[in-house]
């Protein structure tokens, strides 16, 4: 196992002792400026990318734009569910073949499957230095982030009525909406297992289950909160932002817990499977200020490089303190599913 | 039969009027109308579906055979009574013909109607309905079969011109958001087909997978355009349609729910295309 911890990047910067960092501090940390695509090397040659299904086709737009900007570059793309592609990459490696040069996954857990198998190439230091310090990994580059949030109904609650501890929410009298079958929710439970242990997580799940209304997906959760069916929900941040964009008078706002799985920042990510500089240069395009800005404004994803405007409607990140979790550990989903089943949640 | 064939021809010709067949757009349009599906409920598809033209004669013979077998059964029921027939044979007849997968891979709405007609005959006999009622169901089944043959003949023409996708085991195509809406509508047609086959669990699973893997990918964009429309479709996917299937309503009732959803999805497609056009460039 090649597990690294979340804090490796910070160790190099000598700020390990201050973890977990509020994002506001991280933003102030030593970080290289993002690069414009106009300053990046032209791509020439061919690569094959395995692409996990992305945000409603917007990743496809990015890939098309990169190819259009580089007429001498040909990108072969294989598309599929992220976890399935990760398993394919590992299986192909075991069979002694490598069909993919790059893997762009919507979920960092899937990245972990590939890095744990020792198949990813090291990321150049200058590329890694463009990322926020807490998102620096040796063998993969997070592309954009998403935060776990507590959407709440503003006609039923004020923000200060919501506990800032995810564990305390289980003991509150709030009614809750959740989507336990949803992959993002399961990654959040995995983070809770890592941070709090299986016993506490199982107790938390059982308590929440007693008062929770189940929805098929997290947009459904957010809409349920807005309709007043429940007081709060568990969901990624962008569902609320998008609903408010389409319905500006929605009775909805976001609350955050502190330093726990309730405000986990997960990320999509890219890794190279060979040491061809073309693959590395392709990754630079994904971290360019143009791509980061596009995904922030169009997909409401959180840019992970410096100086890019946050998605419209996302509250100031100054007081948000995500937990320290090696995102690649979120690949360990089987024990989470088992725990959710034994707790009667799935 | 000529009338039905002309109807189908007109149906696709009308679509082609709006998008020339030589364009990629038309290929996608045809792919959505005649979407090939790798996983079927009743065993392997068979390579024949990639060579429709060469198999048209045998498909036509199979339809004739099927129509004749059912007619014999209904006649026996009429003259000799219910004990003289085994209605389970109807299902076996249908599942034994190659035409079965040819129509399932090429025109799912008619495929559903064939199953509906087949079960219409079976249930009418099992419930000891008068022969007139059985004949009525038989007629509906026959119409669906001939309509299916017409659709396969038309599909064969498009396949000859290279406008029909080869049936593949994996989907690797880029899927725009508006194309995703077409795929969702097609999956909903399959829900009717599986429900008509009396495969409720499979129908429900398709609804669930379509919601999670396809609708979820477009609802983010859609909710920015029309939050109420998303709300209604969310309810359709998660409550109305699963309940209609679970409560074993009639095929027509399930089809009505789905037709209503498809109308909403048409509106969703217009909104999504508008959003796609308005979206800023990456660079």
UniProtKB/TrEMBL annotation, chain A:
Gene3D superfamilies: Periplasmic binding protein-like II. Fe cation binds at residues 238-239. It comes from the Bacteria. Residues 1-28 form the signal peptide. Keywords: Iron, Metal-binding, Signal. It holds the Pfam family SBP_bac_11. The keyword ATP-binding does not apply. This is Iron(III) transport system substrate-binding protein. It comes from Pseudoalteromonas arctica A 37-1-2. The lineage of its organism: Bacteria, Pseudomonadati, Pseudomonadota, Gammaproteobacteria, Alteromonadales. The gene is afuA.
